[in-house]
Design a protein that fits this description.
The chain is built from 9 helices and 2 strands; from the N terminus they run ααααααααββα. It is mainly alpha-helical. Helix 4 crosses helix 6.
Length: 230
């Protein structure tokens, strides 16, 4: 790839991003945001939810009974961040306040004012579930994918350029009137039958998991939609 092409592409990308930025400033969203709204919900919206969580000081006085059913391991891991977040907020207050109200080393999740801490977990859960629903972000992987793709498409570890990769995986099936390639066919191989079964089964499990996370996120959003304020 020539330097001229690289520079030309970077200039084109810069102009595109400038145009999208102008659209966002004018109407609040860009054309680019509309091309993959499901990815926006899996990437941008969770960041907004976490930003809201981190700057909130109040909370709706609700039971947030969903907290009792959150996965224990997830709650334990998230507690570390929530505790540190509360500490930083406490440290940002004035000395008189800190003197009158010492920092509590434990989260209040079952007490009289449990709604303060539970609300932070609910917001975290919404963000987490939306991310897990995204095929680009979800932490669950198909452990058979690498070997499956290697068998189907071949080993590309020795390919040093896009041209090499293209020539290795495509063949011309139609030419135009001038004898130039017009149509290509992707070359694939038959994978091991047992590997293919495992790969597809794992993909189904991942899709079911992502769908479950999506439903949980939107159930929470449906219930607490009008409480997403600071």
């Amino acid at each position: 790839m020539s330097w001229f092409y690289i520079i030309k592409r970077k200039v084109s990308d810069w102009r595109f991003e400038k145009r999208m930025a102008r659209q966002r400033k004018k109407r609040g969203f860009s054309d680019n945001d509309c091309w993959g709204m499901c990815y926006w919900f899996g990437d941008t919206f969770p960041k907004m939810i976490r930003t809201l969580r981190d700057m909130k000081n109040g909370a709706p006085q609700l039971e947030f009974e969903e907290f009792d059913d959150f996965p224990l391991q997830w709650v334990v891991e998230e507690s570390k961040y929530i505790m540190e977040l509360k500490r930083k907020k406490w440290e940002s207050t004035d000395k008189e306040y800190r003197k009158e109200y010492p920092f509590e080393e434990e989260l209040d999740l079952w007490g009289k004012e449990k709604f303060f801490d539970r609300w932070l977990f609910v917001l975290s859960r919404i963000a987490y579930c939306l991310e897990q629903a995204s095929d680009e972000i979800t932490e669950i992987e198909n452990e058979y994918e690498e070997e499956y793709h290697k068998q189907v498409f071949g080993d590309d570890s020795d390919k040093k350029s896009f041209k090499e990769w293209w020539n290795a995986h495509h063949e011309v099936v139609e030419y135009d009137e001038k004898g130039k390639p017009k149509l290509w066919r992707l070359i694939t191989n038959e994978p091991d039958e047992e590997l293919e079964k495992k790969y597809k089964k794992r993909n189904e499990e991942i899709e079911e998991y992502r769908d479950k996370m999506k439903d949980e996120a939107f159930d929470l959003l449906k219930k607490y939609f009008y409480h997403l304020w600071d």
